[in-house]
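From the pipeline queue, job 12 of 40. The input is one protein chain; the requested action is below.

Action: predict structure.
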Amino acid sequence: MIKIFTDSTCDMPKDLVEKNKIELLSLYINFGTETIKEMDISNEEFYKRIDKEDSLPTTSQPSIQEMTEKFEGFLKEGIDVIAVLISSGLSGTFSTANMVKEALLSEYPERNIEIIDSKSTSMQMGFAALIGAKSALENCDFKTSVEKIKSNIKSSRFLFTPHNMDYLKKGGRIGGAAALIGNILKINPVLTVGDDGVVEIVKKIRTKKKAVQGILDRFQEDVEKYGFGDAVVHHINTLEEAKVLAKKVEDIIKRPVRIADIGPVVGAHVGPGSVGIAYYTENEMR
């Protein structure tokens, strides 16, 4: 038996988490000295609160104790663990999970634990965890489940455009000079989480409308070249824009697409008004 873990930055719709029996590790939001589990604050409450705060909140990873307790609960029952986690280039969660793995394997040497760096976040990561969970529910063996997850990571992409560069600058995800120039010139770049697991610019575009079209163009190009797997339209506090984008995605793939809002941890670094597509293809893109 295998239990699939991912973390709260997957932004996975709740029904998919429950249906596929996925376990979530929560990252944290820090408002000054107040620390809140990401899973304990609604997106609506979070974005209302940051409008009132003088400074942006910080984020932090799950504790060693929390990971240990969650993993060990399944290992004790003879269940192996696979964790698909936020990019090591964006968080220390992956590194901490590996420390926990080594400690637990010394106590449970007969069990298997695999910690996988998703090299991304949101539903690009979520899809990998979902593939792993479905594999586990189909009683695939440990090695096969790990291989399917890693193949999905090579088949996926997350393209998005922010409302402006302010949050990326303040969160240290993009250089101050690039953010300043971007805002002055009204640049709305198409961004992705690159192969090295950090945010990078795919294309610099002068308006948000053109940036969204740039996302759609790349999505269609990938689908035509590699085949379509699945997709989610993501947004941060801009549902109406997400609905418009979802309709355009549906026109390309000729099927319904889910809309999922992005949670506080990623939102704190990207900012309200952002919109994008997380997707994977039938064949590996990398």
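Job complete. The radius of gyration is 19 Å.
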